[in-house]
Amino acid sequence: MSENRKELLKKYFRGRKALGEEGLWYDKKKSTMKEKLLNKLEKEVINCRRCPLGNQRINACFGSGDYSSKLMFVGEGPGYNEDHQGEVFVGRAGKLLKKIIKGVFGLDKNQVYITNIVKCHPMKDPSVPEKRGNDRPPTTQESETCIGYLYSQIDIIKPEVVVTLGSPASKTLLDSTVGITKLRGKVYEKTLGNSRVKIVPTYHPAYLLRSPSKKEETFKDTKLIKGLL
Ligand code: URA
Description:
Layout: H1 3-18, H2 25-46, H3 53-56, E1 64-65, E2 71-75, H4 80-85, H5 92-105, E3 113-116, H6 140-157, E4 161-165, H7 167-174, H8 180-183, E5 188-192, E6 195-202, H9 205-210, H10 215-228
């Protein structure tokens, strides 16, 4: 690039800054592009019938939050509340997750990105989606069928750190048979989709509600995550 062109660009950006424009124009262009790609992907998920869960659920739950965030949380799949509201982590476990995100990172839920391995509610008895206590973890086949959507989300959002919540999400993304107690507390580097990310497994907030004594270990994990950002 010629010196003259560089000077012109610098002048342009100084002018934008003076007008209160925060990022560079191409940052805005990039985030509009991310939004467009994610909206398109979400429509695909809403219409997806690749596995039986697509015909059983009430609402697909794509994921939500800041699509420019460095931090992504991944749970196993929507539960009863999520299925009814069409949004991830809105039940009791979600409220605890929100509290952890605020308490540890000082961020609101919508300042990080949150999603799941599968986008539709896995039910023990799919004939009664209105029944409470009907949740189950996704099967390996359901996870494998759906995982492409998560990889696409990762490729678009490009988080630096992916926090897997609980055994099913951690085992799936780390391609491991080891349980969460052994997996947690460490940082793993892996390529998911086409993106190199750091993965930190920790306990699922629903498990923390049942076993509050595990909060101490979770706090250690969150400190580890904070150190990576
Ligand atoms: N548990 C999950 O794993 N995901 C949700 O969205 C809600 C509860």
